[in-house]
Amino acid sequence: MNFNDLEIYQMIFETKSINQAANKLQYTQSNLSARLQQLEQELDTNLFIRTNNGVSPTANGQLLYQFAKQTLDQFQQLKSAMITTKPRLLISELLLNYLIMTQKEFDVNHYEITIKETCEFQQALAQTIYQHVATFNPIKFKGYDLMSEASIETCWIAGANTQLAASLPIAVNHDTQCPLRKLTLDLLSETTNVIEIDSLENILQLVKQEKVSAMLPTYLLTDSKLVACDSRRWQIKYYHYQYHY
């Protein structure tokens, strides 16, 4: 039994399907079936009952799942505690573009960068220690000290033909805690046509194609394909935390 076996077993248990587990882990179904059979032989017990709808864990299967989950969680915590050659930086897509690409605040060559949606930050911080965190939401995890706070200026942005903007749907990020999404929804009426897009980059492409308009940072206006819809501006706060051992 090894960590890979435990990861495979955990996925089979949670999906209740060898086929679904194989798809998620990008293995062949026959490979996972063989690994499961080998695991059952090693432990000398049946871990699942095979059915037409998938698999159902036995009592011993339930025990192994608890062991696998606990072991894998502890292994992840151990990896997180290990000192890496580069400090870890946790950051959102929007702040990555602004702080790294535009402000040059972090050198990409000096950091191990993890990009997460804002709604995923709490879980990420619970699992891994990051030496630096750039976030739109204040965090209260032990060991993290607030180093600075600042703001990004935003406005309504459309493609080059601003005359179309009023008739276009408004795009928001599907990340429920995205600050641009929150600001957009606060400013719009319930009857406004709003569509969710899965990333900032995809929103930008649709705005440039004049298919949507959106609330976006004003630093993007350096792109000739983007223009401000009006003179109004809003400020969105962000925070830089550093971890101290």
Automatic annotation (TrEMBL):
Keyword GTP-binding: no
Record PROSITE patterns: HTH_LYSR (PS50931)
Domain HTH lysR-type: 1-58
Top-level taxon in the UniProt lineage: Bacteria
Keywords: Transcription, Transcription regulation
Cross-referenced InterPro entries: LysR_HTH_N, WH-like_DNA-bd_sf, WH_DNA-bd_sf
UniProt keyword Transcription regulation present: yes
Coiled-coil annotated spans: none
Similarity comment: family membership: Belongs to the LysR transcriptional regulatory family.
UniProt-recorded name of the protein: LysR family transcriptional regulator
